[in-house]
Amino acid sequence: MQWNVSELLKSTTGTERRYTVDDEERRYEEIATRVTGTVRLMKTDKSILTTVELDTAVWCSCSRCLSRFTHPLRLQFAEEFFPTIDLATGARLHDPLPEGAFTLNKRHTLDLGEAVRQYAVMKTPMKPLCTEACRGLCPTCGVNRNETACDCRTSTEDSRWAGLEALRGKLR
Prior knowledge:
Blueprint: E1 2-4, H1 6-10, E2 16-23, E3 35-43, E4 48-61, E5 68-82, E6 102-103, E7 109-111, H2 113-123, H3 162-171
Parallel strand pairs: 5-6
Antiparallel strand pairs: 1-7, 2-3, 3-4, 4-5
């Protein structure tokens, strides 16, 4: 997901380029499948504005059974990429950039990979589940209850409430 935008930087403000993405390369460990979608690049007065719509999947570990699975993601975002080298002179630009801004490299190449990785990480669920019906791990023997049934007795009673349970029994 790289484009040389030197011609776009020479053009007038508002000039656009549109690209279809079908990237099989997996440069980042979080990304599990190919990345497909569309990218729109637009020249602004100081940068290249990217508008991105992508589909991919990320690797996750189920928060109940710890199984590894892929979780599909739809990424939609817009980011600015700032040049660091003057196109005409080749001199380094010393304009202050916003904190955490994405930049073009010295050959005026826009690399969307890191932005896609960051948005994929942000969009990944905090407690992913392999399925909604995941039964998790047995708290006694540790077996994955989605794969194997165990004979462990799991008590839902909390011994700290025993005194109150006894009081409730007396009040009835």
